[in-house]
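INFO batch 0412 | record 1 of 1 | parsing
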Amino acid sequence: MNNVLVVSVNWLGDVVFSTPVYQNLKANFPGVRITALAVPRVQPVLALCPQVDEVIVYDEDGADRFLPGKLRLIARLRQHRFDAVFFLRPSFSRVSLAFLAGIPVRVGFNTRNFLGLINRPVSPDGVDQMHRLDGYLALLARFGLTIQERTCLLAPDNDSRLKTQKLLLSKGIRENEDFYVLNTGGNWDLKQWPEECFAELASRISREKGLKVVLTGAAGDRDRVMRIAALSGGAPVELAGETDLPGLAAVFLAARGMISADSGPLHLASALGVRSVGIFGPTRPEITGPRGRGESVVLIRDVACNKAPCYYLECPENRCMKAVEVDDVIKVL
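INFO prediction complete | emitting tokens
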């Protein structure tokens, strides 16, 4: 195979977990050109993956939502003359796009009846019980490819590093100055560590270790970050909404380490080689724990109801996240 398309997954952490797919495709097919088809929000992650040669954006909620956009996308895929496509998580719309684009070899898990649109189906048995990374690699292995690499790997963007140095300097952090990053958000509330815990942690890092603290997050996390900063009393640097994803990666790379709940940024930092502390509660590290080249510590307490991944989003207590204490984090920094 000389020209391959990979249909990406849709969430930041899952995309990080999928990076060994691209590494192993390159290893199995030397000289292959790899293109990823991805939704807009994860395109910047794939841009940091050295083995991805091109990203085609599938804006399924915007420009490509209706028939004219889909027809343009199909035409673009057809122009690439791909030899094969690998679906990391098959969906009927994406499988149909690849079929209509005339891609001859279409590889995916046989999880649904795709009416022959996937013509190289592989068994999904046991994939849901695997770590996400291993589940994606099972697609390649069951297709007959050799798996040589199981570590997430992303490379920094040098332009973003220079911009981030200037941003940090404007916030009072000198070049090469040690600091910790607290990434306080999460894509659902149940996975978030309590605000008062982050505030106490920020205060203690400043007081006990004499280091500055940077609070990161998306624009939607700004109010949460401001509350944590106010509670901490230590005037941490607030960066919520002030960096794009490559800029966030550069912040992590400049830090001594980062602390986060189970989130996309945690896995981004790990894949970049940054030392990370992951606070887990309703999710399980066996399924979504960090698998990057950076040293990582996972903190999780058994509270009986979190022996398996829990998706009870209306949980009134969130005991599993509250069970991890600030002392637990301080001890591993």
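INFO post-check: The longest strand covers residues 33-38.
INFO record closed
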